[in-house]
Amino acid sequence: MSAGGAGGSGIADDPDIANLHGIAAKADASSVAETVSRAGNRDVTPRAATMPAQPERSRLACSQPLPATLAFLMEAGVPGAELRAAAEEAHRLGECPVAVLLAGGGLDTTRYYRALARHLGLPFLADPVIVEGIPSDVAIAAGHAPLAPARHGGDLRMVSAPRGAALAYLVEQASRHRDASGMLRLQGSGFPPGLALTDPARFEAAAIAADAPRIAYQAAHALPDRHPRFSHLGGARPWQRRALFGGMAAFALLPLSLPVDLAFALVSVLICLVSAFLALLRITTCREIAGITPKIRPPALDDAHLPHYSIVVALYREEAVAEQLCDAIAAIDYPASKRDVIFVIESDDSRTHAALRPHAQRHGYRILVAPDGRPRTKPRALNAALPFARGTHLVIYDAEDIPEPGQLRLAAETFAVLGPETVCLQARLAIDNDSDGFLPGCFAVEYAALFDVINPGFLRLGLPVPLGGTSNHFRIAALRGACGWDAWNVTEDADLGLRLAHMRLFTADLPATTWEEAPVGLRAWHAQRKRWMKGFLQTAITHTRDPLRAAQAMGGMRYLVVLACTFGAVLSAMAYPLFFLTGLAALATPVSVTFGHAPFWLDWFHKGVTAPYGLLIFTVAGVTFCLGVAATLVPALIGVVRRRRAGLLARLPLLPFYYLLVSAAAWCALRELFTDSSGWHKTPHGAGSRRCRPALPASRPQESR
Questions:
Q1: Which residues contact 670 (CB under 8 A, 6 or more apart)?
Q2: Which label site among 180, 269, 387, 670 has the fewest CB atoms less than 10 Å from its CB?
Q3: 155-213 per-position pLDDT tens digit
Q4: Where is the region Disordered (predicted)?
């Protein structure tokens, strides 16, 4: 997912895409300004006529009184030492004291807002219902919304879940507008009559419930409505279908117009060229990455200058790994008050919700229930959460992920030193249950080759790279400007990486590891790989709708790489058994004859070689097979060595047989592309042993240019 380098002017004709560069630059400038002048409260609620806000600055010396937003909690029984520690930590971080207190896990968010309501003499609503028609992201950003009269009657008109500056202003105004009994006088205070409080989680759920149809539509259709050529919705265009069926007809008629041997030879050479191009690319990345010296960490940012970071995880039927996920996120070395964690679940997934709830409450994480809609895919769930993320940067994790504790800090430091057009970082992915059998072991080798050798090499060469499905770090303004993920593509990660390249936005390698669990059983592995292959085909279709425009935007060579990484990868996998068997027979024959055994295929092999064009066909098959083996084993060997996983070396000879299973998945994916294009195959988690997690040597990020 690098971005293509120099492109033509075609991209400039699209004002929406061209504007992304301005969005990225403005976001970078604002983050720099925030870093330089951070005065405390990043979580500022926009001004509104009914809820004016003034910034609260946490610059408290230890001898000064507690902030008003904390002091009243002593009446609720919260120890003063705990409140003082939160105030001091907020002073150190330049954060809102309440955010620091709640992020520490010592006080439940609901308990805080109930105590606040008692302190102000306002009612607390445990189940608010907001009027429909208000955009949920606007309501949540404002922190208040009108209540539905039919549910709450005429006495209560407005519900608020103030945070940050709005919370400080509310408490300050309350101290100035109390009657003789100590109750809050709303008249003249700037607050609306009929005001009630709730906590942010309940307010967010109510706002989303009132706005569910719009959220569901935007999650699925924001990209196809704004940039239809970048979405797989609708599938192949008419000219693509005509080209496909024309090519199939030409392929079928080829033996009728040419001798069978010649037709077969031409097809073999064509497939060989595609496979050879992929193989040479992989081998070239090995040469590039092998010459990189040990990388240097970017300048460190102290906690006060770290940006807010959103962590988004889409889950479905993941109750088995819910506790592990929450603990892994809690272990990340990043200020808790600057982490914005969102778990996105489906409305019918009550088990995952129940498993997450106690851990989310303890750590202050948010659970967002995605409104029902189609397609039922991970990217649609991520799009549903995107408007509600509060961070400057955003990272995607999977349910089974265990990121290295320093990953977010390194990502923030890397973004700080790279230009604003670098909008994405791809962290390294590695498998930690490789001892669970043949499939996890080969999967671990495959990941070591891809994420420790090939992808970093591609980025060093300035080539586009399809993103991995997790540990993608984004500048959130640019991600929103690109309309998030394509809900209609089952490999939304790969598609987004290439779309960013099309938009001439850049990606860098992030040398920090996220440990993942490989599927243990064949059924789960096959379903996952079939989805990947189907997604590569969808991505190829999407990015060939306007090939001239795409090639102009990316550059010709980079566009060829896009085709090779999508369509070429699937085609090579589908043709692999032919070259595997032919190449294996060609290589095994002289060995068998040397030991005095005439193999059963020798007569067939002799007839094939002596037939017209037979020698060409067998030579092409042998060369393709040898190139493929080299392009598979060399990156895998380098990756295993870089990972310091000597135990995986025994898996290398098994890879040629492992890729026969990949080929079977590719053929199934082709069939499913026509029968169930947007069907999502869920990968179960929690069955792996998750034992081996050696450290990755530290290295300096490589940027695609």
A1: 533, 534, 537, 570, 574
A2: 180
A3: 788 999 999 888 988 888 777 766 666 666 655 566 777 889 999 999 999 999 999 99
A4: 34-59, 681-705
